[in-house]
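Ticket reopened. Same input as before:
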Amino acid sequence: MAAKLILSMDGVVINEFPISKERMTIGRKTHNDIVIDNLAVSGEHAAIVTILNDSFLEDLDSTNGVEVNGVMIKKHVMQANDVIGIGKYHLKYISDQVSQANPDDFEKTMILRAPAKSAEANAQVSATANNVEKTGKFGALPPVDSTPATAPATAPATAPAAAPANAPAAAQAAAVQILTGPNAGKELDLVKNLTTLGKPGVQVAVLTRRPHGFFITHVEGTSFPSVNGQVLNDKPHQMNDHDVIELAGVKMEFYFKG
Amino acid sequence: MKVQDALEIVSQTNPGMVRSHNEDSVACEAACGLVVLADGMGGYNAGEVASGIAVSVTAMEISHRLQNASPVERDEQSGEELGVLLLRDNIQKANASIFHASQSQPQYAGMGTTIVAGLFYDNRVAVGHVGDSRMYRLRDETLESITRDHSLLQEQIDSGMISIEDARHSKNKNLVTRAVGIDAEISAEIHVHDVRIGDIYLLCSDGLNDMVEDDDIGTTLYAMQGNLPLAAEQLIQMANDNGGRDNVSVVLVKVKGGFAAPRGWFAELVNWFNK
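Engineering reply: fixed in the latest deploy. New output:
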């Protein structure tokens, strides 16, 4: 396992603990995996449950609480370089899994293999599976079906830290101002990825925000919208600054905002 | 109204921006109101072999069987409706075919696939799924997922280990706990939902819902419900604009009218004559 915890107090490193099992406990009593002999630390203070590449920290109702990066938590999903604070002690979570990751595995769907019913010989695998299931309230997975599928994956699970799935589109801010009709003068900021213009059932067009700009697309209705007097076809049309859209008799101006 | 006249079905699949080949498969049998989508996994081309088998077995078997049977008939032994029974049996049949192929041919060892299938009949839809391919429903303005992923992440959410916000950043997004073709037996999760006129059903592989927020999927479907092919195209484009790290497939089904199964002795008589 790639991750470890470094125990320190006042900047002085005391010990290093590799994360070597699914559930590691931290506390004052000697049966804990990480023992911190200090009266500010509860007997069983906290636990770290690790499943594949994700580690979860949980406060075991300790008297003085658990901080991560200075914030009091009850439960926390560990990120590389998080600092756990327990009393005057600090535990830094080091995880180098990102650098070990193979980009080819990124986002590839993999099956978590249930222990094969025929392969009783593979008792080790089943044993690990059972361990995961029994890791206290934190790790208690609900039974899925007759085959508890918590055994190690058939493929090495080395997906790197997934970036937030969709970073907001990089397009510039833009707006549409209505020029004619009862709503003349109204301004509509294009803050969403998709903005609807028109009336459903009559004539609808959408303005979509994409990484390389804004596009107008005809959706429904017998007549098509026009841009700068030119009637569109059913393909998306990229918008330029100060383009004038005409839709169902209403004119509006598209422009980028400073 | 017959089911093929009551539904508008559109499907589209795309390899995405990163992958060189497409391991997703889709099938639509408009005549019997069946849509199937599968997302295969396994080395080389085994993924598309697995999803291809899953989709063709379920689509062909079910549509063949429904040519001279009604999905509302009840099975004498189990008392289950034929529609539900067909979904369950044929996902199991697909499982057996894939499992057999992967056992007998070394290049296919370990291949598997997710599956989500919807069978529309009698103003209802029977939904069967295995793995993390989803079915969503847009009703009025609300988009809702009507399947629950068989994934490690979903289990972690269910057991309260991880919040939905944290789940978006989890590294274990892509681990499914159930798949077709991995073991000799599989149990598909099957539920029957009532259908309303105006509903739009979306079947998608995780290439869509991993890359595009549910909110954006909902807005797009709502805005573009008058133009289903454009909506499908737009969803795939959004996934690809956001990185398109996986194959993206969508199937859209719009309910345009009621499709109640004929009932009563007269209908049965007509059916009997039509046989």
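Chain B touches chain A through 55 residues (CB under 8 Å). The CA atoms of residues 96 and 184 of chain B lie 6 Å apart. Please confirm and we'll close it.
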